[in-house]
Amino acid sequence: MSIWRVLLSILFPPLAVIDKGCGSILIVLLLTLAGWVPGVVAALVILNNPKS
User: Which parts of the chain span the membrane according to its record (predicted)?
Assistant: First the structure.
């Protein structure tokens, strides 16, 4: 996980997970709309997942 991805996930979380698939983008987008902090946390968790 690069520093640019971390900064992007803080500024605009759905854009940070754009290459992780449609489901991840949708989940992060909905959480970001519900509140900025849940979207950032979800984006960081998805980016930190070693499986994908």
Answer: 26-47
